[in-house]
Amino acid sequence: MSNAVIQLIVLAGIAIFLILRLKNVLGTRDGYEEPLQPVERPETVARRSFDVIEGGPDRDIIDQVPEGSDAAVALAKMKRVEPDFVVATFLQGARSAYEMILMAFETGDLEKVKPFLAQPVYEAFDAAVQDRKSRGLEVQAEFMGLRELVLSEASFDAQSREAEITVRFASEVISVARDASGTVVEGDARNPRKQRDVWTFSRVMGSDDPNWQLVATGG
Q1: CA 32 to CA 21: how far, in whole Å?
Q2: How many structural domains compose the chain?
Q3: For the chain, which residues score pLDDT lower than 70?
Q4: Pick from 140, 124, 202, 194: which is nearest to 167 by CA?
Q5: Would 69 be classed as within a structural domain?
Q6: What is the pTM of this model?
Q7: Of the four listed, 57, 110, 115, 214, which is most buried by Cβ atoms within 10 Å?
Q8: Does residue 196 form part of some domain?
Q9: d(CA 158, CA 166)
Q10: For 71, phi and psi rounded to 5 degrees?
Q11: DSSP per residue over 112-174, as a string?
Q12: 10-54 per-position pLDDT tens digit
């Protein structure tokens, strides 16, 4: 047998050995196989999820008012003018403002809350305070807690950018008015008074002043 034939046989044996090794390493593919899908980068997945959330309803709004309602539409317009506006944050502020203004009215110390009151509201509150003083009454009050806080209405004027949000409050307050001799003439020092108020706050969206003013009150 010639050297060329022997070399050919050796090369064929090596080729068969390599094929068997590759088959063991890579395995075989039988039947239909789904085409390989490209692996998505994590930021791509996150971006797509964000897009879905962005295209859906604004939970910050529909957690407070019905989707598609006049109030929801108004709140959405406020957000377009002032993207940093958050309804939940506004309600937290309204809760604090309610307690602060209510206690200032009860105790007759309106000066510290005057910046948060529209002039007609301040004048109405001050008239009631002056009436108590003219009768020689001294009021002691304590805020016992808030039982209800509901955003009931919202409106927005696109031209003036003025927003109004109406909130319904239900609270419990101990308020006692005593005359000059210390006799209780109004209220009860032991039993809280249940109080309901409907207040409307206003602000020009996009303005530098972040404060909302109380522009109307009701019960």
Answers
A1: 24
A2: 1
A3: 1-55
A4: 202
A5: yes
A6: 0.73
A7: 214
A8: yes
A9: 18
A10: -65, -40
A11: GGGGGB-HHHHHHHHHHHHHHHHTT-EEEEEEEEEEEEEEEEEEEETTTTEEEEEEEEEEEEE
A12: 444 544 444 444 333 334 333 333 443 344 444 433 333 333 345
Q: Please work out, in degrees rounded to the nearest 5, the angle formed at the alpha carbon of residue 120 by the alpha carbons of 117 and 124.
A: 90
**C-alpha span between 95 and 60 (Å, rounded):** 17
Residue given tokens 């506006």 in the structure block: 85
Q: Evaluate whether residue 21 is within a structural domain.
A: no
CA angle, residues 84, 87, 88, in degrees to nearest 5: 110
Contacts of 89 (CB under 8 A, 6+ apart): none
Provide, rounded to the nearest whole percent, the portion of the chain with pLDDT above 90.
70
Query: Torsion angle of alpha carbons 39, 44, 46, 48, nearest 10°?
Result: -110
Helices H / strands E in the chain, number of each: 6, 5
Residue 8 lies in a domain: no
Domain assignment of residue 155, given as a range: 51-218
